[in-house]
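Handout, page 2. Input:
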Amino acid sequence: MRMKFGVFSFQFIYRFPRIYQPKPCCRCRYAFRAASLMLAVILNFLYATGAPAGVEVVINEIYYDHPGSDSGYEYVELFNQSTESFSLGGICIEFADGRSGERRLYFKFSDGDSIAGGSVITAGGVEVPGAYPGLCVLQNGPDAIILTDKGEIVDRVGYGNLDLQFLYETEPAPDAEAGSSLSRKPDGWDSDINSADFAVSNPSPGQVNFYCRDIGISFPGGDFFPCRGEPAELNFILHNYGLRHFTGTVKLHLARPLPYCSSIPLNNLEPGCSVSKAVTVPVPESSDSFVVEAFLEGDRGQNKANDQLVFSVLTSPGLLVINEIMYRPEEGSSEWLELYNRGPYEVNLRGWSISDSRNRSRRITGSDFLFYPGSYLLLAQEPQSLLSELMMRADFSKNRPGANVSVPEVIGVEGGWPVLNDYPVESDMEVITIRDRRGRVAERAGYEDLLDGERGRSIERYSALVCGSMNGGVWHRCGSNDGSTPGAENSVSGRITASLTITPNPFMAGRNCSVEISGMVGEGLEGFLVRIFRMNGKEVTRIFGEKRGAHYYSCFWDGRDSTGEPVGTGLYICAVEYFSSGGCVLGREKKCIAVSSGAPSR
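Output:
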């Protein structure tokens, strides 16, 4: 591809025998080498007598997918393979779209620009000292970067699953994930096979891509979202980024959130391989985030740039929580999520994103949007349709005593709607993740199908104060007659109080005929409904309580579900709702019931 006949011929001498092996006799092998050397001499003679001047500059590193917003952080690094300084006048870096092949100018060097022998130069990257400014945005692949000299292609690197063969050399390089770059290994080596020449690595603009001895640390915690006040396990990864096997002892230090040190022996760790080290740390109870600072000491190689990590982690429940989900609406209606700002200050949603269990990520909005404390916000598949439905519901509810007739704010998702009930084959759980503009997980809701095919009913979060990463007990089928409670308190919200009693608890179904559930109610309350849930949020049965005194209600549960079948052994959630004479829910309480039936919980 490049006008470098001499360089290509000597690479050919040493690489071609790996592909075509002559018969293993010394005479044939020496004859083959001699023929290759003769070919090299001929090509160099042609180069010296009639070929255009060789361009010894190649694309050395590409960084095209920065976590969060890419703009300004992307860069392309060039490497001068020769030992002499090279003038860059007329050299252009172009971006090529992987679908259409359309090329756009990324940067053009002027006549006064040059690159020293054996060194690198960078275009783009707002944090790269001395970098030339990029003129367009690099997309996240599959795409290509092309280097031209006065309009003629001298190097090209395609990455990702490319169909257009003219965008890459032999085979495209892999597609790097956000925060990683594509780097030649080693620097400047070019076999005209993109997949063989480039590896995914940590960004290293203006520096050596790969050292001979190099151990680095990373934390692949893109989905890390720990519960407040509970221990969390940090799984650090120690990588051999070097070109040689590594033997030595590395010390892993943790400065925050607590002091920690551990020696980790690395015995003959191969290049490109890694080992993991788990560290359990306490998560602060009172903070919505905490900072992790980890670093390596000891025999860790020549490169210090990848020996330290500092990153912040958001905790659950966060300032913003997913409070209600309508994933199976009535035909012709809209899917939606209800968000609740439980924090003390507004949250700007600009640059935030939402994704489903298959990581289909969508940007919520690219503009400033302030989400105020104590308020609700609906993200909807069809915002105008949903808003019309809510206004009609509010008009209808005006004449109902005690009804909440407020209409919450409704917006769409700028990047397109995710899939809320498209369960992956390998799991029965959908996972909705919301990330802030820095790419950190700010909220995550994992739920099973609790509706058994019913349409027009939502699932609700038990409480905005519970951790969304808990196993079970977070999501429940909405108990409202309307099927959902957008912009209002959830029908399953509850608080633990002393008035609700469950006797006996634990409940042994084989020994006790039933368990009594009772509560004290205040003035104006005329109803008492008990709902039993499994820990995964699925409703087991409903029981209406009877008045046993002036303010005392109770009912009995025999340990069976709504079909009359005995429930299994395990923990169940008892949710009690107190009604007014008009049928409005005026109070809620919850407690757990431990059931022993001789059979495992289903």
